[in-house]
Amino acid sequence: SSEPTQNQPEAEATAEPTEPTQVPVEPTEAIIVQTTQEPAPGSSEETPVVTPTDESTPEIAAPENSVYVKTVNGYRDDLGYLHVVGLVTNNTDQPVNNMEIEVNIKDSSGNTLLVEITTTSLYTLAPGETSPFSYWVSEDVSNADRYSASVVGQSTAEIERAALKIEGVMLTVDDLGDIHLTGKLVNNTVNPIQIESLAAATFDENGNLFTADSHSVIVRHLDPGEDCPFRVTMTGPAEITGNIEEYEIYIDAIAADPIEIFDFKTSDSHYYYFDAFDSFHLVGEVTNNNDEFFTISLVAGIYDADGNVVDAATIDIPTFSIAPGETLPYDFQYWGPVDYKTGAIDLGSNYYVQWDPYWTWASSSEYVNLTTQNDINSVDEFQVTFTGEVLNDSGDEVESATVVVSLFDSQSGELVATGYGAIYEPINSNASAAYEVWINTPTDFDIETVEYTIVAKGDLP
Fold first, then answer.
1. Strands 82-91 and 32-33
2. What is the pTM of this model?
3. Per-residue exposure over 247-267, b if at least 16 CB sit within 10 Å of its own CB, e if not
4. End-to-end distance of the chain based on CA atoms, in angstroms?
5. Most buried in the list 39, 268, 379, 431, measured by CB within 10 Å?
6. HSE (CB half, 13 Å, CA atoms) of 269?
7. What percent of the chain is predicted at pLDDT more than 70?
């Protein structure tokens, strides 16, 4: 049932926050966990303080028996885009979900410039729980000066909360001023847990909200005894002047049913490199040892010597489906701190790759092997590009096609890079279509040092 919130007070930005500081708190088993702690050794010589360019509101008193916005903040990033963030608390005696937040942006005279509806980062809140929200403003509101927000709708919910432990948290402010919180979720219970969502927020020394956002990387299902890395990346404000080390992590986790365990094998060792754009790549292969086609999602974590999470990334396999007994390459290449914080990768001591049960399932899509022809490649200082044609010699029409290129070291045979390209239009039987695959490489890449394979897959109707 839906119960719109009526006559809720708006949280309005009225006071400018001061410099943040740190108040160490040990991580605890909780649904909402404050995990402020010392940065891992070597994580930053001087952790920058983020100084907001706009105003933030102190927390308002909790209205009785309501879901309300307790605080809101607005700031501009280094590209000039406006971000409005806030915290929403469930001060009722029942769980709620599907919360709608009305964001109101005004000029210095109090004139309304923009009113938009957004949602909380956590979909469900039990009584007493809090969730951030984060709204990126795409419209031109250059004279924005005041920000307010209120809850304008929610639904009742039924949930069975589950507790996770948070360990190995690191806070990193990167070279662009964006803020990353990385850590590890641990299921120390005797039951499976499903992670519906995870979010984080940062604060100044007076507890005023600074930034907030939802997870960028996470594994959604953990069996008893399992753990996974996570990352929350928050766009920072334009100016960076000092330290910010106080934060909270918010989790929407519920009890789950056991899931079927499938047999996937990832590489025992992985090759890694920085490309010419200073982006980090972790390259390996996954094999489907099951008797069905599968869609697979993978998550990788990089850990320091003390078990703290330096960074985490997620990918899907190049095709939507991998055949029984088949092996496909993968390349984790969209990271946080290791891509944007100088020296972050030097903290890495080991890594771990795992599959995400929530986003992995037996697939109805089946792919057939196709042939490529007229293949050529070219190399510049940034990448190697493969072009050619896909010939549909399968005997059936295919709805689309994927071409996967893998580069192997000529001496060791190790997979050192991979990339793929897609053809989104149908290819009739015995017809062909052009393809292009580009792979970002290190600046000193030499095509003569590698051997390569080109694999084409067609998606059957």
1. unpaired
2. 0.85
3. bbbbbbbbebeeeeebebebb
4. 40
5. 39
6. 6
7. 86
The half-sphere exposure of 208 on its side-chain side, counting CA atoms within 13 A, is 25
Provide, for the chain, the percentages of residues in helix, strand and coil under a 3-state DSSP scheme, each rounded to the nearest 5.
5, 50, 45
Place of tokens 């000029």: 107
Closest by CA position to 175, among listed 54, 81, 45, 272: 45
Q: Where are the alpha helices (DSSP H) in 279-421?
A: 337-340
Residues 333-371 pLDDT 10s: 999 999 999 999 999 999 999 999 999 999 988 899 999
Mean predicted confidence (pLDDT) in 147-169: 95
Q: Which amino acid is at 105?
A: I
Q: What are the two backbone dihedrals, phi and then psi, of residue 124, each rounded to the nearest 5 degrees?
A: -125, 140
Q: Would you say 217 and 167 are in contact if contact means Cβ atoms under 8 Å apart? A: no
What is the layout of strands, in order, in the sheet containing 297-303?
309-316, 297-303, 350-355
Res 26 pLDDT > 90: no
Alpha-carbon distances, residue 17 vs 11, 47, 179, 424 (angstroms):
15, 18, 17, 50
Contact 177, 43 (CB under 8 A): no
Residue 334 in tokens: 């969209």
Tens digit of pLDDT for each residue in 283-321? 999 999 999 999 999 999 999 999 999 999 999 999 989
Query: Smallest Cα–Cα separation from 286: which of 323, 326, 333, 228?
Result: 326
Q: For 461, which DSSP code? A: -
Report which of 211, 146, 141 is spatially closest to residue 181, judged by C-alpha positions.
211
